[in-house]
Amino acid sequence: MGRKNNDWKNRSGMVYSTNDDFDYQNQDGFEEETLAPHQQKLRVLLDKKARGGKKVTLIEGFVGNEEDLKELGKVLKNKCGVGGSAKDGEILIQGDHRDKVLQLLHEQGYGAKKSGG
Length: 117
Prior knowledge:
Blueprint: E1 42-47, E2 56-60, H1 66-80, E3 84-87, E4 90-94, H2 98-107, E5 112-114
Parallel strand pairs: 1-5
Antiparallel strand pairs: 1-2, 2-4, 3-4
């Protein structure tokens, strides 16, 4: 009875482990706390690497949970009238919208600066 709390019903995505000392770590309860806009140090830059020559505006450095990141990305995409994505602390906006994105971020109280030209 030396087993740890390894109830198989609580393991989403885990199929099987042969290691008796394995301790399944459930990450569901952890969410990074989102910093207030004035505490964020965002970098706005133009990127075209590995994108077939297409330019994208990249916003890096967001500290917070994915839901807040996606909400900010949605607002920026909407205001710029283009598509994009938001994941892993980065927001990608299709096209060169650095100046407009920087202005929008400052209007919302975010700490942001243009980077790389």
